């Protein structure tokens, strides 16, 4: 399952970042998932509940931000929102478009707890 390996990677990155700060646990992780990233949000949510078991993220709140697709047309330079990889420019019908947003998978923030 594609999403499980992603979930494990997210968990490892968050744990490493928290350990580097000397944290005891992670209270919250915010993720940004582009609508064009190829990741199924529900599958990722399910995979995260598996991946965080027995890790520093076990009791963390995990927040998912879905990023809408934004493309720019190479011919007329207009920007337009899209949820589709193969959508033509709505201004000039060109298929020469580049994505500006929507393909990302980022860890936006990691909130850590440091016990004195
Ligand atoms: Zn155009």
CATH class placement of the domain at 2-67 and 102-113: Alpha Beta
The SSE string, one letter per element, is HEHEEEEE
- Determine the mean pLDDT: 94
**Ends distance:** 39 Å
Describe this structure in a few short sentences:
With 116 residues, the chain is α+β, with helices and mostly antiparallel strands. The chain is 26% helix and 33% strand.
Provide the fold topology.
Layout: H1 2-20, E1 25-34, H2 41-51, E2 61-67, E3 70-73, E4 79-81, E5 97-101, E6 105-113
Parallel strand pairs: 1-2
Antiparallel strand pairs: 1-6, 3-4, 3-5
Helix pairs in contact: 1-2
Zinc ion (ZN) binds at residues 73, 75-76, 78, 89, 91-92, 94.
Characterise this structure.
The chain has about 120 residues and is of the alpha+beta class. It has a domain at about 1-65 and about 100-115: 2-Layer Sandwich (hypothetical protein PF0899 fold), CATH 3.30.2320. It has helices at about 1-20, 40-50, and strands at about 25-35, 60-65, 70-75, 80, 95-100, 105-115. The strands form two sheets. A three-stranded mixed sheet has the order 2-1-6, with helices on one face. A three-stranded antiparallel sheet has the order 4-3-5, with no helix packed on it. A hairpin with a 5-residue loop joins strand 3 and strand 4 (about 80). Helix 1 packs across helix 2. About 30% of the residues are buried. The structure holds zinc ion. Zinc ion binds near residues 73, 91 and 92.
